[in-house]
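Whiteboard transcription, Tuesday session. T.W. wrote the structure tokens on the left side:
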């Protein structure tokens, strides 16, 4: 089965009739989604400049968010009927859900049991890391864009660096390993990627640099302002020797590099670093992600302009088979790729905090 490789311009017409009789979440380019991202809320306690306005956004009322029962049912269908093997909880900020530990525990109780991961800004993690670990959390990514208070506060618009750092330490102490660190570099706040990497290597955390995507609610993203993967590699290569990881990527967003002392690729690596180059080196050709929003709609792609209202069907009596078919249909129509470089590109109506990473 050939993969469309996300080549812009290749836009076959949607023809469900040609969908192979597969229970999996296959799309018309032959990609199979096995990695489910579930946004648990669009609320957040930070106001990162590359994500949302200083005043926040009109949050979804709690009553309109997916309930723990609905989440357990939909994830249950995904792992039993649709071949999903890993689940990542995102937001907004998922730690703002008081029932997060229950949601993780119910996901861990599913058969087959998926891998369970969390993407968080770490604020409040200090108090909940042990409970999340005991509930079954396997992996965690904590967002940390700067190591000094002034830069952190300029990016996050909240003076909460110490809380995030305490959350990272608590996750490691609770045995959630490896702790991965997500860092978005922005061009208007000077942050030294070498310093961030040194900090992560010294603690055994795996750092990922993420290119900023045009998913900010302010619509202020400009390609010219982008700190690219190439920029990051150049800066890191002034201090380290980076050797590409030869392990198959398996659809993972990050390109991994082994980090060696400068000029010493022959020595044991100091650790690894990941670079997620969504804009300049897209990886859509082997995308294995499917998404549920906090309101229970399916998004085939981060940049999709349409969604399938699964929760509405669930709340109006659809059975599991009908929900599974709706989900399959949503994924069959997945776009070839984000199309950021295509003339006429328009970001989706939803911004990042309303989709989740
Ligand atoms: S932009 Fe869409 S297709 Fe590309 S990697 Fe992200 S979710 Fe997958």
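and on the right, the sequence the group agreed on:
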């Amino acid at each position: 089965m050939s993969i469309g490789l996300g080549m812009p311009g290749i836009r076959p017409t949607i023809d469900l009739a040609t969908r192979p009789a597969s229970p999996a979440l296959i799309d018309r380019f032959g990609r199979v989604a096995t990695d489910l991202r579930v946004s648990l809320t669009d609320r957040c306690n930070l106001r990162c400049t590359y994500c949302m306005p200083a005043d926040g956004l009109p949050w979804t009322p709690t009553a309109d968010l997916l309930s723990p029962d609905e989440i357990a049912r939909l994830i249950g269908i995904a792992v039993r009927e649709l071949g999903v093997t890993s689940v990542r909880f995102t937001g907004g900020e998922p730690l703002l859900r008081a029932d997060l530990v229950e949601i993780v525990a119910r996901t861990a109780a599913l058969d087959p049991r998926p891998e369970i991961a969390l993407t968080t800004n770490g604020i409040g993690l200090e108090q909940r890391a042990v409970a999340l670990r005991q509930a079954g959390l396997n992996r965690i990514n904590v967002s940390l864009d700067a190591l000094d208070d002034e830069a952190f506060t300029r990016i996050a618009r909240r003076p909460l660096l110490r809380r995030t750092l305490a959350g990272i330490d608590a996750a490691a102490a609770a045995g959630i390993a490896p702790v991965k660190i997500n860092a978005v570099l922005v061009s208007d706040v000077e942050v030294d990627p070498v310093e961030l990497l040194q900090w992560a290597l010294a603690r055994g955390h795996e750092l990922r640099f993420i290119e900023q995507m045009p998913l900010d609610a302010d619509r202020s993203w400009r390609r010219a302002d982008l700190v690219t993967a190439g920029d990051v590699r150049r800066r890191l290569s002034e201090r380290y020797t980076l050797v590409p990881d030869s392990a198959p990527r398996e659809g993972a967003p990050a390109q991994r590099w082994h980090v060696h002392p400068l000029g010493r690729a022959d020595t044991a690596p100091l650790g690894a670093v990941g670079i997620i180059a969504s804009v300049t080196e897209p990886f859509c050709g082997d995308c294995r992600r499917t998404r549920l929003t906090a309101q229970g709609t399916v998004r085939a792609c981060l940049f999709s302009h349409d969604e399938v209202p699964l929760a509405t069907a669930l709340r109006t009596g659809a059975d599991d088979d009908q929900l599974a078919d709706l989900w399959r249909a949503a994924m069959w129509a997945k776009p070839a790729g984000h199309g950021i470089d295509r003339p006429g590109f328009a970001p989706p109506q939803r911004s990042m905090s309303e989709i989740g990473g």
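Someone added at the bottom: Residues 2-179+287-355 form a domain with the TIM Barrel fold (CATH 3.20.20.70).
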